[in-house]
Amino acid sequence: MDMYGPLCVGIDPHRKLLAKWGYNVDAKGAELFAMRMLQAAQGRAAAVKFQMPMFERYGSKGFAALERALFAARQMGVITIVDCLRGGLPTTVSALADAYLKPGAPMLADAITLLPYYGFRSLTNLVGEALENGRGVFVASVTSNTEGISLQSAIRQRGDFPGQTVAYGVAHAAQNFNEGVEGMGSVGLIIGATIGQWMKTSGVDPSVFTGPILSPGYGWQGAEAKDLKTVFKGTKGNVLVTVSRSISSKGPEIADLSAATEAIALDVRQALYEAMEEGDKEQAAEPEAPHPGIDPALTAAHLADGNPPQVHIKPLSATTVPSVSHQIPQNPQASYSQQATQQQSQSRQTSATTVKSTRYVPSAVRVATTPRTNDTLGNSDRFKIEDRSSKL
């Protein structure tokens, strides 16, 4: 994200878009669509996200199309996310590692999306396999669909974190995987850009989460720059905003898709930069807690009179100073924001500096001029590369 900014281009081959682009509504059309979107995203976005069900609808041919598109993305050096939104019992979801996350996997991706509603612990082994293989995951916490908040803001009655929301528990469990990681972790959350009015209800604070955040909802679903600034105020360069139809609707010409990608990337970068600055200003404006020996009322009175405050020191009781040898046990149900704040301030300082100083300069990308009626699969030298993923 430091190089290409916080945009993730969604590759969603909707049937209406395939027809609009002049492609057949089948697996071949979906693959051609994906290849054009990849060319538009390369060098202009941090990552691409494949909407897996829109390939799956075509059966085995659709899966083969997704395999080839993922292979092409790897050869182009584009980070890939497969939006499969899977969840289930541990023995079931472990198969996802073989499909998407291990070397030689048929649909090898950099990250996948997961649903935690069998309980986050059902995902623990899968998340562990992702990390062991240098991959990542994004777990749904507060999604962009309006009806999702009724479940995600529900209060837990038993188990971990009773009295907290479902979304809070998901965020806390994900943050545990990122503890002790220098910089950004690899276990991320899905937090929609459309849920600003429900942020307090959800119990989730994105500004203290130290993993990546995948944020759908910008553009076609209604979220705007002001929503990004509301939801992600105080974040430090770890938000990846996914945009699909607002870009693909400008197709099929790659020049038009590329221009739309660049424009949206700049808008998203600016909005998140302002969100970071606003959070920094609010943090700086917060009054420091008074020394335990200073009477705040007396100090405030002197300030109101315009006179220099005279500090009235009260003797500290013996109970005020904890014993040096006493270790305060960590509350296992403490807010994940409290546990993450110290790590955030240390590990994100460099990231914040990078975001402030980075200027987005799109790299030169060769734009194909071949008419789409002549698009072919497998005939381009660009994709005639031996797949060596099984040898990694």
Automatic annotation (TrEMBL):
Query: From start to end residue, where is composition biased (Low complexity)?
Result: 333-354
What's this protein's name?
Orotidine-5'-phosphate decarboxylase
What Pfam families does the record point to?
OMPdecase
Q: Which InterPro entries does UniProt cross-reference here? A: Aldolase_TIM (IPR013785), OMPdecase_type-2 (IPR011995), OMPdeCOase_dom (IPR001754), RibuloseP-bd_barrel (IPR011060)
Task: Name the EC number(s).
Answer: 4.1.1.23
Specify the species. Bifidobacterium callimiconis
The organism's place on the tree of life at top rank: Bacteria
Q: Where is this region: Disordered?
A: 276-392
Write down the chemical reaction(s) this protein catalyses: orotidine 5'-phosphate + H(+) = UMP + CO2
Regions of compositional bias (Polar residues) in chain numbering: 317-332, 370-379
Ordered alphabetically, the record's keywords are: Decarboxylase, Lyase, Pyrimidine biosynthesis
**Biased composition regions of type Basic and acidic residues, renumbered to the chain:** 381-392
Q: Which GO terms describe its molecular function?
A: orotidine-5'-phosphate decarboxylase activity
State the similarity comment. Belongs to the OMP decarboxylase family. Type 2 subfamily.
Choose any GO biological process term that the UniProt entry carries and state it: 'de novo' pyrimidine nucleobase biosynthetic process
Q: Any keyword Disulfide bond? A: no
NCBIfam families reported for this sequence: pyrF_sub2
Q: Identify the SMART domains for this entry.
A: OMPdecase (SM00934)
The pathway entry for this protein reads as: Pyrimidine metabolism; UMP biosynthesis via de novo pathway; UMP from orotate: step 2/2
The chain positions of domain Orotidine 5'-phosphate decarboxylase read 6-260
